[in-house]
Every structure is written in C-alpha cells, then in structure tokens.
Specification:
The protein is α+β, with helices and mostly antiparallel strands. It folds into two domains: 102 residues, Outer membrane lipoprotein wza fold like, CATH 3.10.560.10; 90 residues, wza like fold, CATH 3.30.1950. The protein is 32% helix and 18% strand. It is built from six helices and ten strands, in the order ααβαβββαβββαβββα. A five-stranded mixed beta sheet has the order 7-6-10-8-9, with helices on one face. β3 and β4 form a beta hairpin. The longest helix is centred in the C-terminal third of the chain and has 34 residues. The relative contact order is 0.14.
Length: 265
C-alpha cells in the first residue's frame, strides 16, 4: 500500500508543480513590495506632444472679438480668420503637428510644439498672444486623436480613443476586456514608434509589480499592445485543427485492421 501511495504521489507531483507554475503566470503585479522599497520621484505623468498629433486649441478673452483672429473654424482659411461672419457656430479646426514638430497657427505662424506637454504648449501660445492682446488670454490645448490598439489574447481587441491624455498598460487591457486565461502575461509585446519614426518592440512582464516603475507603463499615441497566447493554447488549437485528420486516419487504420483479421481467418 505504501509503495502504491508513493507511486501515485510521483505521478501527481508534476501536475501539482505545473499547476503552481501556471497560477504564478496568471496573476498580475506579484512582489509588490518593490514599489515600497524603491524611492520614487512622485511626479505625475504628462504626455508629450508628437508629430501627427491633432491639437484642439481654444483662446478666450474678455472681449470675444479680440480672439477671433486666433481661432480657425470649419469653412475658414487663414485669410478668412480675421472675419468670423457666418462661422459663429462652426466647429473649431484641429491643428496637425507636422513632421518637424510644428503647428501652423493663425497670425503667429509656425510654432514648435513637439516635446511639450499640453500645459507647456498653452504657456507658449499665451506668451505669443500677449503681444497682440491687451490682456493675458485663457488658452486651452487638448489632444484630439490619442488612440491605442490592443490585440491578441484579450476578450475585446480593438483600437481605443483616450480622452484624458494618458493611459497605462492595465487601463488599456481593461478597455479590451482584460486578458483571457490563455494569455502570456509575462511577455506582453508593445510596438511603439517614437517622434522621429523609429519603431521598436518592447517586452513587458505584467506579472511583476515593477512594471509600474517602467517608462513604458504609460502608453503613447498609436501604441500597439499585443498579448501572445500561451504554448498550451497553441498546442490545443493545433490539436483541435488536426483532430478530424487523426480521427480519419484512426478510422482508416481500424478498417484496414478489420479487413486483415477477416482475411486471415
């Protein structure tokens, strides 16, 4: 009896170890003590404007007429910006950041904004406008086309619009309905293009709490997050796809074996 129990334990031990390893790879943010042990700067994240961003810029003054030359609306061009007649209720046009990192702003001309936060961009435009106005204007800058994409082993893959200028990797996964149970959580791939067009693939281990300290924790405009399937999922799909073939082969082999046995009788 003792030998049988020991033999049974030997058979079950690999399954138990595999279960523990699988559980460890299925949870997020293990070893969270690292966040308390490492001194953090405590600085809130601010998105930096990049080429191809579209900016919504609104200028307000106590005298609305004085700010009209600095607003470009749908149906206006640069020459019409001095006169707002017929466009009072029109939608404001976005400002596209060109490949050189500049926007073409009415009256002020080319303004370099790449690398600035929205707050810094507001300060830049406010300072430039002071020379044309008798007061310090109120300037608001927002990103209008901030999008990230999540695909792979998630429940709702897709492209998602970000409205508050920042999103971290876990918020993006939450938008995509979280990872499936067959997701490889310790090697999530992030495809990123920087401000000068260089592309790189960054590997992220979401099972470790240290990911919250990584510079890639917050996503940038047009980032693509790819969640790989586990090897078990790939093997399962391969078996499922080939199951009909194996069943046919086994059926054929069984038929041939039956014919051989009948022939030998």
């Amino acid at each position: 009896m003792f030998s049988f129990r020991r033999y049974l334990l030997v058979l079950l031990l690999p399954l138990l170890l595999a279960g523990c390893a699988s559980y460890k790879k299925s949870v997020y943010l293990r070893h969270d003590q690292v966040l308390a042990d490492i001194e953090q700067q405590g600085k809130l994240y601010e998105y930096r404007i990049m080429p191809k961003d579209e900016l919504i810029i609104v200028v307000s003054t106590s005298d609305p007429a004085s700010s009209v030359p600095f607003l470009r609306k749908l149906g206006q061009n640069k020459e019409m910006s001095q006169n707002s007649q017929g466009t009072g209720n029109a939608k404001l046009l976005n400002y596209l950041v060109d490949n050189q990192g500049c926007i073409d702003y009415p009256v002020l001309g080319k303004l370099p904004v790449s690398g600035l936060s929205c707050r810094q961009c507001e300060d830049l435009i406010r300072q430039k406008l002071e020379a044309y106005l008798n007061e310090v204007p109120n300037v608001t800058v927002r990103i209008d086309n901030f999008k990230v994409s999540v695909l792979g082993e998630v429940n709702k893959p897709g492209t998602f619009t970000v409205t508050d200028e920042r999103i971290n990797i876990f918020q993006a996964l939450a938008q995509a309905g979280d990872m499936t149970l067959f997701a490889d959580r310790d090697d999530v791939q992030l495809l990123r293009e920087d401000s000068i067009g260089r592309r790189q693939v960054i590997h992220l281990d979401l099972t470790e709490a240290g990911i919250a300290l990584a510079p890639e924790y917050y996503l940038q405009q047009n980032d693509i997050v790819y969640v790989k399937p586990t090897k078990a999922k790939v093997r399962s799909n391969t078996f499922s796809n080939n199951a009909s073939i194996w069943i046919s082969l086994l059926s054929l082999a069984s038929t041939l074996a039956s014919l051989v046995i009948i022939a030998l009788q």
